[in-house]
């Protein structure tokens, strides 16, 4: 996915860009409202992440202009203000959602996903592996022609495997992807979710294979 | 000028003072009318008495040294023109009664200076007004002193006087009543700019700190000026502190966000479990401080707004849906389902939307935080006398001993383990519920593990 990050704090912007890159997303950074305006007019983004306090004005101005120009790109506001006083105004101005800094990156991803799902998805993000079709934005999964329901953690786990089929992922890496920092879980917890995914992929050619001592990988069998 | 009673009602004071003035004027009017009318009646009687006596005196003549009297009928009949009172007369020549009632007393001779001379006295049990006219008659070579006394009872006069008195009383009372009513109207009219000003100030919402622009009379201009000055200072103080909070939140949260994001990136790149564990601790500390800061701000905001609720009629189901929509991405991350049970009929509550949202968000956030993965949270809206929003989770629940003190500030259950929290969430919800005349109920989940937190609010 392609993001436009409008944030005047360079250190935070840098950290967020790095973080997005880890997930394989492309991020353009705009430091000011003027930059943001130019970028959003010239490039088509899947999502705009907008800070509110900017050196050359209020992010809400951008939001208002963005909406009155009927630009369809969804906007999630990154706010550092108190939730109580801000939330109503932001949503009224046409933000699709907002998140209070500092935030858990997986929560931001969840919100991005929720917004995309609500708006009917952007581009077709479905990927095919063997006879499995998976759309990580909507979480839709088709196994051997049959639609299958995925819960959130199963979906995120499958997303990891689908990003690079055949690659071995360690338990520790999968845990980082699946659990938040406030969850206290043992490494065995990952086995529960791998087990569930295996059952759902059962009818297909794809399967998740245990690589003793190293972790798991998704392969095509049969 | 110092007022004896600076409280109390200006209107009442004005009415009482005006009524007192009206009462004084009524009494003065009554007394004046009575005195003048009685004087006029007395003067009339006196004039006729004098005319009667004079005409009798004139009818005394000398006939060759003999004093004679031809009593003129008109002298008596003229007296009957003022009333039907009885008339007495007595004519004396040289001190000897010639005709009439010889026991009719003469007015006190010591007062004999004016001629005719009037006096009022008791005669035959009745009040008698009498006049004495003295005349000197030459009878041959001698001078004869003729004294004529004419008296008339005063019953008619008393009747006239009592009629005048009752008329004067009626007019006085009427005047008093009309004046009091008018003074009431005048007071009402004089106070109306003040009422208008008070109403225009009272009508404003709690956050309306614009200057008062209602037209006010010159006497109220200093008050309005003072009020506007005060509101201006209050407005700028509030704006300053709001700006300060916003600025403080921004200054604290932006670096925290930087630290957290960088730590996440590094955590992903780290391999050694010990380093990863240290970073996890760091990130949790960041979460804890940002969460505490946020809830402290929320709590301050709730306390501030609780004193001046901006109430409106709200759809409780819509409120719940909003908050559930907002929090469901967070719940989904843990595969927690939020199941809503909403009644078919609309449930209306009267309340401050921002505060109620905040309360619901805190309760639900709490439930999500303490719920294990792969569980459901039941959100149930009921309206049975009161509006009840019940949130049932399947988490670790609350220890029985904690139920009492959970809503106290910074109090957390004894079994929180290492879940990040400030202990303010339920306090905020409880404060909001109380400010709306409701409350927060905490009980164990009847159908299994976990707890049920119920936000109770009065229905519209």
Structure description:
The complex is a heterodimer of chains A (222) and B (460). The relative contact order of chain A is 0.09. In chain A, α6 crosses α8. The model of chain A has no long low-confidence stretch (mean pLDDT 87). Chain A is built from eight helices and 13 strands. Chain A has helices at 10-22, 33-42, 59-68, 83-92, 105-118, 152-163, 171-178, 189-201, and strands spanning 2-6, 26-30, 47-51, 53-54, 57-58, 75-79, 97-100, 126-129, 132-135, 140-143, 146-148, 206-211, 215-220. Chain A is of the alpha/beta class. In chain A, a hairpin with a 3-residue loop joins β12 (206-211) and β13 (215-220). In chain A, the strands form four sheets. A five-stranded parallel sheet of chain A has the order 2-1-3-6-7, sandwiched between helices. Chain A has a four-stranded antiparallel sheet with strand order 8-9-10-11, with no helix packed on it. Chain B has 460 residues and is an alpha+beta fold. Chain B has eight helices and 14 strands. In chain B, the strands form four sheets. In chain B, strands 4-3-7-6-5 form a five-stranded antiparallel sheet, covered by helices on one side. A five-stranded mixed sheet of chain B has the order 9-11-12-14-13, with helices on one face. The mean pLDDT of chain B is 84. Chain B starts with 9 loop residues before the first helix and ends with a strand. Chain B has helices at residues 10-58, 73-77, 155-202, 221-269, 273-306, 316-333, 353-370, 425-435, and strands at 60-63, 66-69, 87-93, 96-100, 117-123, 126-139, 142-153, 312-315, 337-341, 348-351, 376-384, 386-392, 439-444, 451-458. In chain B, α4 packs antiparallel against α5 (273-306). The chains are: A alpha/beta (222), B alpha+beta (460). At the A-B interface, α1, α4 and α5 of A face α4, α5, α6 and α7 of B.
């Amino acid at each position: 996915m392609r993001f436009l990050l409008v944030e005047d704090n360079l250190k935070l912007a840098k950290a967020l860009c790095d973080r997005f890159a880890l997930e394989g997303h492309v991020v353009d950074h705009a430091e000011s409202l003027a930059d943001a305006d130019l970028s959003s007019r010239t490039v088509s983004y899947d999502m705009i992440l907008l800070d509110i306090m900017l050196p050359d004005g209020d992010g809400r101005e951008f939001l208002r202009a963005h909406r009155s120009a009927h630009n369809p790109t969804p906007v999630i506001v990154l706010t550092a203000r108190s939730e109580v006083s801000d939330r109503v105004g932001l949503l009224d101005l046409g933000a699709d959602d907002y998140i209070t800094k500092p935030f858990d990156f997986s929560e931001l991803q969840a919100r991005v996903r929720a917004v995309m799902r609500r708006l009917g998805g952007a581009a077709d993000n479905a990927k095919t592996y063997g006879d499995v079709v998976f759309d990580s934005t909507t979480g839709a999964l088709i196994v051997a022609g049959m639609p299958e329901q995925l819960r959130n953690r199963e979906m995120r786990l499958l997303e990891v495997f689908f990003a690079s089929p055949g690659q071995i992922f360690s338990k520790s890496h999968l845990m980082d992807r699946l659990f938040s920092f406030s969850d206290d879980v043992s490494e065995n917890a990952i086995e529960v979710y791998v087990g569930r995914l295996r059952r759902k992929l059962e009818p297909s050619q794809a399967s998740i294979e245990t690589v003793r001592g190293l972790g798991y990988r998704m392969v095509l069998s049969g | 000028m110092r007022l004896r009673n600076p409280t109390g009602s200006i209107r009442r004071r004005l009415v009482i003072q005006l009524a007192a003035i009206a009462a004084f004027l009524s009494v003065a009017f009554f007394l004046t009318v009575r005195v003048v009318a009685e004087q006029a009646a007395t003067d009339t009687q006196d004039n006729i008495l004098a005319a009667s006596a004079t005409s009798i005196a004139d009818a005394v003549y000398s006939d060759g040294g003999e004093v004679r009297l031809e009593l003129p009928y008109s002298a008596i009949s003229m007296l009957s023109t003022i009333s039907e009172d009885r008339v007495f007369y007595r004519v004396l020549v040289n001190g000897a009664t010639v005709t009439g009632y010889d026991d009719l007393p003469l007015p006190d001779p010591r007062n004999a200076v004016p001629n005719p001379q009037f006096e009022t006295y008791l005669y035959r049990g009745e009040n008698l007004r009498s006049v004495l006219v003295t005349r000197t008659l030459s009878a041959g070579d001698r001078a004869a002193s003729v004294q004529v006394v004419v008296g008339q009872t005063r019953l008619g006069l008393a009747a006239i006087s009592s009629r005048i008195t009752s008329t004067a009383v009626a007019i006085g009372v009427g005047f008093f009543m009309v004046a009091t009513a008018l003074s009431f109207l005048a007071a009402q009219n004089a106070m109306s700019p003040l009422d208008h000003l008070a109403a225009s100030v009272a009508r404003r919402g709690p956050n309306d700190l614009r200057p008062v622009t209602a037209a006010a009379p010159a006497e109220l201009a200093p008050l309005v000026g003072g009020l506007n000055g005060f509101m201006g200072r209050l407005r700028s103080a509030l704006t300053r502190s709001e700006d300060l909070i916003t600025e403080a939140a921004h200054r604290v949260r932006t670096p925290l966000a930087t630290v957290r994001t960088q730590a996440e990136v590094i955590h992903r790149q780290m391999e050694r479990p010990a380093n990863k564990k240290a970073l996890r601790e760091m990130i949790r500390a960041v979460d804890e401080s940002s969460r505490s800061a946020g809830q402290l701000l929320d709590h301050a905001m709730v306390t501030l707004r609780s004193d001046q609720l901006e109430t409106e009629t709200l759809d409780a189901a819509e409120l719940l849906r909003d908050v559930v929509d907002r929090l469901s991405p967070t719940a989904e991350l843990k595969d927690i389902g939020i199941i809503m049970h909403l009644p078919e009929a609309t449930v209306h509550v009267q309340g401050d939307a921002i505060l109620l949202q905040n309360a619901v968000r805190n309760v639900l956030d709490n439930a999500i935080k303490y719920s294990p993965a792969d569980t459901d949270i039941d959100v149930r809206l009921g309206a049975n006398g009161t509006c009840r929003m019940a949130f049932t989770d399947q988490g670790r629940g609350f220890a029985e001993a904690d139920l009492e003190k959970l809503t106290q500030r910074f109090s957390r259950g004894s079994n929180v383990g290492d879940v990040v929290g400030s202990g303010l969430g339920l306090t905020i919800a409880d404060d909001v519920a109380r400010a709306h005349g409701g409350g927060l109920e905490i009980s164990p989940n009847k159908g299994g593990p976990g707890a049920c937190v119920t936000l109770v609010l009065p229905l519209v």
